[in-house]
Amino acid sequence: MIKSELVQKLAEHDPHLCRHDFEVIVDAILHAIRDGLARGDRVELRGFGTFAVRKHAARMGCNPRTKEPVSVSEKLVPAFKAAKEMHQRLNPSSLGHRNRTAFMASNAADIVSRVDA
Q: Which pTM value belongs to this model?
């Protein structure tokens, strides 16, 4: 969802604030994330995920056109890791698989305990 769609969706939920107010709020959040990353901080949005800066070491790369070796300097790149809640929301089948696995494991433990008794 692009920023204008996000602002529109937020404005629909609260009739007391105008669209411009929500645009200012969304911009403030995005700027706070950007500024935190620029300082080298880790920015966490609970239930959504964590933004961090990762360092990529200098290396020897390859020019794809000429196939000549090229020196690639060290650089910092933004990285995002989804929160557990976000991951489960995006992958509901993996949650079901874990529940089935846990059920099967507990069921197997019950069977083993009955056999031992």
A: 0.62
